[in-house]
Amino acid sequence: MPEWGTGELLRQSAVMRAIGSPFVAGILAAAERQLHHAPRTQAMLLDWPGDPAAAAVAMRLNAALHLLARRNTPPVLGALYRGEHGDVDGAVRAAFVAHDALVAQWLRDTPQTNEVGRAAAILAALKEVVARAELPVELIELGSSAGLNLNLARYRYDLGGVVAGPAEAAVYVAPEWRGAPPPDRAVEVVAAEGVDLHPLDANDTATCERLMAYVFADQPARAARLAAALEVARRFPPRITRADATTWLAQRLDTVQPAGRWRVIFHSMVAQYVGTAERAVLERSIAAAGARANAAQPLARIAFEWNPGRTAVELRLTCWPEGDTRVLAICHPYGAWIEWLR
Q: Cα(270)–Cα(248) distance, rounded to whole angstroms?
């Protein structure tokens, strides 16, 4: 069996099994074994520039296969995903033979998960923000994708027994909660906007197909929640600017912040796709805004990101004018569980 070099598909297969997605784990393991049937895809993986784990190449490949299964092409792959047979290798092999070019194209594009489950962690962090000063909140999101998490105030939550959000909400987020609950404080979101180089439109069929493909095939509850969140986004379109985040954020933070309002920057699973130079510019912009913050115009930053060693996803909160940073929680990458540390 040819090997393509890094073993990243097998590594991610083990991760998927560990976090409770055995079907996806099997797909990725079969993809490693059958990769020589997709020469374009194999060549891209062999020559991948940089860290394939940080770039989530396995998730890109998995999403491409899920897309094909949802389209029922080849039929043997669609049948596998519907549970009609168990020949994983045969189905993946057939997909690689017939659709190598499509899989290779998906590897070129940055993942677009826009996971709504992460909104629970963001809201819990916002409750910590409001516990410091009970002020309304304006949200600024970096890497908004389709902007589904900009609508977080429209969702219903159970955060370790702390219930929040409209009772009639179509989207319900209730992660497995470990540890004490977050502060039971009401969060009033008065404005929300974001930035993305390639924002996705919830009204676009191809966009919705792409987002659904990135949901793991053995997690139907996530798929249902995503579909509901997309419907909310069609009714209440998020405000997203198509721009480079470095320039846009600097300009946005230079606008006058109304007194008596929190300005909150947040981002989730975006940092790994940001280059070193770009990250430094963003950090300088945020630090400069933090230096200008005061009790009447406070600033906060919420980060839902891998730690430097990629051993855990941390929910970090920094608040200004104090400038202190705390790790509030360790989280499942897609928000399935939250281990609250406060």
A: 16
Q: Which residues pair with 302 in a beta bridge?
A: 266, 317
- DSSP state, 243? S
Strand, coil or helix: what is 178? strand
- DSSP-based three-state secondary structure for 325: strand
- Tens of pLDDT, residue by residue over 284-342, are 999 999 999 999 999 999 999 999 888 999 999 999 999 999 999 999 999 999 999 97
Asked whether the beta carbons of 9 and 1 are under 8 A apart, the reply is no
What's the gap between Cα 272 and its chain centre? 11
pLDDT in the model for residue 336: 92
Question: By the 8 A CB rule, do 113 and 211 touch?
Answer: yes
Burial tier of 334 (Cβ tally within 10 Å: 0-12, 13-18, 19+): buried
Q: How many residues does the chain have?
A: 342
Sign of CA dihedral 18, 23, 27, 33: positive
Q: How far is CA 308 from the centre of its chain?
A: 17
One-letter amino acid at 182 equals: P
**pLDDT-derived band at 1, boundaries 50, 70, 90:** very low
